[in-house]
Amino acid sequence: MASEFVPRAAFPVLNNVSRSYFLGHHKAGLDKMKQMIQNVDLIIECRDYRVPLSSTNPMFEQSLAGRERLVVFTKRDLGKGNDGARVGGLLAEPIMKKWLEPSHVLFSDHKSPGTTKKIIEYTRKSARITDSLVGSRMLIVGMPNVGKSSLLNALRREGVGKGKAAITGGQPGITRKIGTTVKISEDPVIYLLDTPGVFIPYVPNLETMLKLALVGCVKDTVIPLTTLADYLLYRLNLHDPRIYAKYSPPTNDILELLTAMAKATGRLAKGGVPELEGTAMWLLGRYRAGEMGKFILDDVSKDAYENWKKAESEAEPSASALRREAKRERLRVSKAKYESKNSPSVE
Length: 347
Ligand SMILES: Nc1nc2c(ncn2[C@@H]2O[C@H](COP(=O)(O)OP(=O)(O)OP(=O)(O)O)[C@@H](O)[C@H]2O)c(=O)[nH]1
Fold this sequence. Notes:
InterPro entries: GTP-bd (IPR006073), GTP-bd_ortho_bundle_sf (IPR023179), GTPase_MTG1 (IPR016478), P-loop_NTPase (IPR027417). GTP binds at residues 145-150, 197. Keywords: GTP-binding, Nucleotide-binding. It comes from Ascobolus immersus RN42. Residues 138-200 form the G domain. This protein folds into two domains: 2-16 and 201-339, Orthogonal Bundle (Conserved Hypothetical Protein Ylqf, Chain: A, domain 2), CATH 1.10.1580.10; 24-194, P-loop containing nucleotide triphosphate hydrolases (Rossmann fold). Helix 4 (113-126) packs across helix 5 (148-160) and helix 7 (225-239) packs across helix 9 (276-288). The strands form two sheets. The chain has a six-stranded mixed sheet with strand order 5-2-1-6-8-7, with helices on both faces. A two-stranded antiparallel sheet has the order 3-4. The chain has 347 residues and is α/β, with parallel strands linked by helices. The protein has eleven helices and eight strands. The chain is globular, with a radius of gyration of 21 Å.
């Protein structure tokens, strides 16, 4: 019976999970952004609504300081009920706004013109250069896959009524370089620049890494899919295990859940053996599409942001941990390159 089920109180510490995903184009992108900030009026920094703390990249604060910053929590539709997310009975959004004072905070859903409109209005107020030939320039930055390009396209649609200008995609790393300028307003003239997502060189907290991977900021090749599905199960159980009731009674065993899901959805290999990896990918896809509950994965309380920043700064990695991660990342990238070179080509 569901009432007798006791979810795991903590997720086990795993040593096989990489804590790094800092790629060449992340560093190059950040260096270029640093050179550009002199000429921009506003930095729109995107963070994911479902992980408002974990998707904060302190490198943006350090490298892009001195410019006005608007923080936009993206993918609001994936983390909330009708009146915005509630955490412990309290509305989360006013707390998230308070965390970041004096920076201005807005929330977005790329398909909701209302949220996009508010961002456009804010950019118009922040535009300092109103000469229509030069125009005002703004940068959109954030972790990989937080929805920067989608927001840029939505702003363009809302602001000047034009179609898609930037390519978007379900996996991180779609935008590799700082793109061309895209006009998002005529009066005053405002150009927005899309930038590649930038990850953190080392994520000290294992759970932060798992949360970022769960929401899609890390490529699905970095952390084993069944580990990620297990972390999702841990979170679903804390939230409401009835979410997967169609497939299984409440369980703390990911293999049990994946097996039940594989059977129910026909993900079976020869001899009826459940395809666990494929089922884990399917489950993650359903969560990312908002079909496995909508909730915030980070702590949202008055002091959570300060506590998180303090914990992050105290957890500086040792030089040897950084070297180990850099080596692990190099090996992972060269293995992926080797595998893609040697995999059969698709016509
Ligand atoms: N549900 C929902 N999905 C969104 C939203 N914004 C973006 N997405 C989806 O999230 C994925 C990533 O979006 P992108 O706009 O490509 O993200 P990005 O930050 O530009 O990614 P990089 O190029 O890796 O830096 C895509 O599948 C989008 O459709 C949103 O507000 N709601």
